[in-house]
Amino acid sequence: MTETTEKARIGAPSIAGFTEEGESLSPTPVATGPLGGDAAKSHSHGGGYGIPDSSRAGRLTSYRLADFPELKGTEEEWRFTPLRRLGGLHKDALDGAAPAVAVEAPEQVRVETVGREDPRIGSAGVPEDRVSANAWEHFSEATIITVPSGVQLEDRVLVTLTGAGLAAAAQHIVIVAEEGARAVVVLNHNGQAIVAENVEVVVGDRAELTLVSLQEWQDDSVHASSQQVKVGQDAKVKHVAVSLGGSLVRLTPTVRFAQPGGEAELFGLYFADAGQHLEHRTFVDHAQPNCVSNVLYKGALQGKDAHTVWVGDVLIQKQAEGTDSYEKNQNLVLTDGGRADSVPNLEIETGLIKGAGHASATGRFDDEHLFYLMARGIPEDVARRLVVRGFLHEIIQKIGVPSIEEHLTEAVERELEAGDN
Amino acid sequence: MSTLEIKDLHVSIETEQGVKEILKGVTLTVKTGETHAIMGPNGSGKSTLASTIAGHPRYTVTSGSITLDGEDVLAMSVDERARAGLFLAMQYPVEVPGVTMTNFLRTAKTAIDGNAPAIRSWTKEVKEAMAQLRIDADFAQRNVNEGFSGGEKKRVEILQLELFKPKFAILDETDSGLDVDALKVVSEGVNRAHAAGNMGTLLITHYTRILRYIKPEFVHVFVDGKIAEQGGPELADRLEEEGYDRYLAGAGTAVQA
Asked: What share of chain B is helix, strand, coil (3-state, %, to 5)?
C-alpha cells in the first residue's frame, strides 16, 4: 500500500516578505506583465521544508513557449506528473487535429469559430505553465461562446469535444458570460486524444456561470487543460471538474478575482482506475477584497498504480481584505496499489480576512469496513458501491443540472462495475 | 423456534509466530428466547467465538461445526449469515466513510428482508428507535460511526439490533467502555429486542455489571479456549465475588460443572 497525504508545509512562513527570522527588506517579488519573460525566477526545489521556493504570485506566466524552461519533472508544479506519459505535450509541436467541437446551445447564445488574432483571445488569462504555453503557441482556431449581457439561460450549453486520434494537438476555448448573464456551460471531453487545452472564462460583473468540465476520454488519451476564470464584480462562478477517463488527465483550474465581491466554488470529482493518472491543481487568486471561495475535491482510487494528485493553491493577497476562503480534498482508496497525493497550500498576505481554511484527508476502504457492512447482510458488491456512491455523491449533487447529475451517477456506477471485474 | 448449535469448535488464527489455536473445542446450544452469558478473563477466546460466528476472515475454523436450524453456517458468506438471522454487535464498530447512517440502515434492512422497507413507516421506526436509545436525531445524517464516541457506537449497534430483528444476537463486550447511564440505555434496548420475541442472545462480557440489567438463564465461563464451567445466574454471582482467579490457577484442568 503506497498511500500518502502531504500536508501543507507547516512552519514555512506564509507571509510574503517575511522569513522565519522576520521581515525581509528586499522588495517582495511581484509578477510582471503577461509577456514579461523576466518574471521567471530561479527556483529551488528542496525537500519541501523551509522557505517556499516562491509565492504562487511569483510564478512565471507568459504567452510564449520559449519563456518557459524545458521541463525536468522536478519542478514544483510538475513533480507529480509522469512527463514521459504526457504524449509530448510539453515539448512537441502540437499540430495534430484538435478534438472536434460541437455546441448545443439556446438561440440567445453566440457561438463563433475565430482565428488566433481575435482580440477576445487572451482576455481571461496568461498561460501559467509550459504545456499551456505550448497549446497557446500551436492552436489554429478557437471557439468562442458568448452568453450576452443580461441573458439568463434556462437550458445548459453543451460543448462536446470529441477526439479522433493520438496526434498531439492544441485546443482553445473562450467562454464569456457578459454582465448580468446567467448560464450553465458543460464541456464534455470524450473520444481519443492527446491534447493540450486552454479554456478562458470571463464572468462579467454580476454574472453567474456554472462551468462543468467532464473528462470521459478513452483509455489511451492524454489531456492537459488550463482553465482560467476571471471573475467580475459581484459575479459568481461554480467550476466543476469531473475526471473519469483517460490515461493521464491534468487539469489546472485557476480562478482570479478581477473585481471585489466575487464568489467562486470549485468542485471536483475523480475516479482513478488501474494505471490512470488524474491530477487536479486548483488555484484561487484572491487579488481583490471581499471575495468568497470554496474548493472541494473528492476522489476515489481503485486498482494497481491508480494515481491521483490534488494540489490546491489559495493566495490571499495583501489588498484582499475581507476574504473568506476554504479548500478541502478527500480521497478514498478502495484497493491496494493506489496512490493519492494531496497538497493544500495557503498563502495569506493580510490578516484582515474573514476566514481561510484548508483540509485534506485520505482514507481507505478496507476489509474491516467490508466486514462491518457485510455483517449487516449487505453483499460485497453492494457494500463497495454504497461507500463510493455516498462519498462521491456530495460533489455530484452540487452540479445542479439534473441531466448531468444523472449522467455522472451512471458514470460512477460504470466505474464501480469495471472495478468488480 | 430456532436453534444455534456450536459443536466442538476449534478455531485458529495466523500470527507472526505461526498458527495459534484460540478455541479448543467449544460446544454450545442457544435457542430463541434464551439468554446465554459468556464470561471469562481476557484472552480466553470469548470474542473469537463471536467473530467466528459472524464469519470474520481472520479466524479459521479447523474443526467442529456451527449450524442454524441445521443449516451449515460455516458454509455461508458473512452477508449470508446476517441474512440468515445472525447479528453481531461489535466490540469495536468501525467508521465507514462516505455512507450516512440513514443510507446504511435502509440498505442493510433491504438486504436482510429481501425488499426495501416502506419509506414512511421505516423512517418513523428508525426515529423512534433512535429516541429510545437516546441517539441524537442528527446522527441519521452522519456517516456510519464517524466521529462517534465509544458509547455512541455501542448505542448504534443496539439500534441496528432493534431494527434488523435477528434470530440470534451476539453481543461482543457491548458493555465495555460504557458509563452507567449508557449501560442502562443499551441494556434496555437489548431487553426490548428480547421481549419482542423470537430472539436468542449470546452476551459476551468480562464484567458482571451488565448482568444486573440483562438477566441470563445460562452462564458459561470461558478459560483458555474452552468452557471451564457452566451454570445458571448464580454462577455469575459467584464470579462477581471470586473473580476468575480460581480458573486461571489451573487453566485447562478446571472441573466441568
From this structure: 40, 30, 30
Is A367:A335 a contact under the CB 8 Å cutoff? Answer: no
**Amino acid residing at A418:** A
Q: Is B98 on the interface with A (CB under 8 A)?
A: yes
What the block records as the C-alpha cell of B255 is 472441573
Instruction: Report the CATH number that the domain containing residue B152 is assigned in CATH.
Output: 3.40.50.300
Closest C-alpha among A180, A182, A254, A247 to residue A213: A254
Q: What are phi and psi of A102, to 5 degrees?
A: -125, 130
The beta strand positions in A169-291, using DSSP E, are 169-177, 182-192, 194-203, 208-217, 222-231, 236-245, 248-257, 263-272, 277-286
Structural domain for B121, as ranges: 3-249
Per the domain annotation, does B256 fall within a domain?
Answer: no
Q: Compare CB distances from B56 to A371, A373, A387 and report the shortest one's residue.
A: A371
The predicted-structure confidence for A189-230, as pLDDT tens digits, reads as follows 999 999 999 999 999 999 999 999 999 999 999 999 999 999
Task: Give domain limits for chain A.
Answer: 18-420
Give A48's pLDDT tier (boundaries 50, 70, 90).
Answer: very low
What pLDDT sits at residue A393?
84
B82 touches A at CB < 8 Å:
yes
Residues in chain A closer than 8 A to B79 (CB atoms): 374-380, 383
Dump the DSSP string for B148-177. Answer: --HHHHHHHHHHHHHHH--SEEEEESTTTT
